[in-house]
Amino acid sequence: MYQENVPTGFPKGFLWGGATAANQIEGAWNVDGKGLTTAEVVQKATDRKNSLAMNQVTQATIKQAMADKTADLYPKRRGIDFYHRYQSDIKLFAEMGFKAFRLSIAWARIFPNGDDAQPNEAGLKFYDKVFAECRKYGIEPVVTLSHYEMPLALTVKQNGWASRKTIAAFTRYTEVLFKRYRGVVKYWMTFNEINAGTWGFTGTGAVDDQLTTNEKLQLRYQALHHQFVASAIAVQQCHKIDPQAKIGCMLARMQTYPNTPNPVDVRAAQVQDQLNLFFTDVQVRGEYPEYMNRYFKDHQIKLKMAADDQAVIKAGTVDYLSFSYYMSTVTAATEQKAKTSGNLGFGGKNPYLKASDWGWQIDPVGLRITLNEFWDRYRIPLFVVENGLGAVDQVTADGKIHDSYRIDYLRQHILQMKEAIKDGVDLMGYTMWGPIDLISAGTSEMSKRYGFIYVDQDDAGKGTLRRIRKDSFYWYQKVIATNGEDLAD
């Protein structure tokens, strides 16, 4: 729509804040009736740059984990003790001026086995208290229904999302939450980084280590189909139970560039882009895109669908598109020698970009590109719900943490969001990852710190758990107070 006035800054009511996940912060893994989750049987990685370690789960390692009643090998069991410290942590978020706090609900706190006859009231009461604390400070909770975890009992019983039965278990869980938190939670999202399901266990809760490559793809895409149906049902539930609430999808954006202008490289990058955008095409447009038909045929994938599945997906499109953005990669038609690690995978190295301590390429302009591509393709509100820099922070002798590198990273990305808004993009908020140091999703280490708030805990779980404000804490406080206008140190 033509208009002469171009936006000059972030809109009024922009949702500034931070994002976390239950399995990375809560701890209290066996408290108040909570069941064991899939996240709590993933061992900490031995290689800190192996972000795919979280998918290296087998039937044997699950049995080993179930027999182990400690958190020694499973740091997500201890988190950072948010379960007992949520009041003081949320108070710190409020001190920064948060407008929104993205968190997830642990399904196994509500239904310990996933399909219990009745929900666990103790689990619901915990989130009652968390949301009340947010409301006390005027912070909007942004709630992920499934963030890289599900009750382990469903994996043992029916191999997680590989089973269609899991749809009913999930949508019973979501119905309980929508009814309980009607008028309390305004913003929901269904599955965190749903495309992670193509990498295996963490996204699907399904063990597939004994399968061939094509068999794995078959299982994973079938599991993802079940998640698409469950997500669509949850959207319809939410709209019916609480018409004022908004519910979105969530994608790990894999921004990729062709290695050269050679058309074969451009086409290779286009294919990678399609494989990434497939998920949002389904959840936003409400249908399977035609380009996937060839992919499924080429990889001998045959999806089993109920007669009304596609109609359900069409009727359950989301209200907004949320996504994580950390980096970009390069794609070529032939295998590249120079590789880089990153979020959910690996790609070609871009000689024009610097990288983090973990090899993740830093590309602020790529965020503007992503925002424009999403807006052009989907025309629904966008929400950056993860973006941040994992780094090794050093505490000085006087107890300070000077993290100018984090400030610089976030500043550059916020500037590019502002440019995207000037481009005409409808951007509703920004919840950086993660506002307080937490357990890494991929490697389960503590040394990879993202927060504005330092947590005194090492990779072995030793420390006082004391919270310390970093320099970036005060910087972000100023950013929020000026609605993104003052980005100086």
TrEMBL record:
InterPro entries: GH (IPR017853), GH_1_N_CS (IPR033132), Glyco_hydro_1 (IPR001360), Glyco_hydro_1_AS (IPR018120). GO terms for cellular component: cytosol. The keyword Coiled coil does not apply. It comes from the Bacteria. Gene3D superfamilies: Glycosidases (3.20.20.80). Belongs to the glycosyl hydrolase 1 family. This is 6-phospho-beta-glucosidase. The keyword Repeat does not apply. SUPFAM superfamilies: (Trans)glycosidases. Signal peptide: none annotated. GO terms for biological process: carbohydrate catabolic process. The active site is at residue 386.
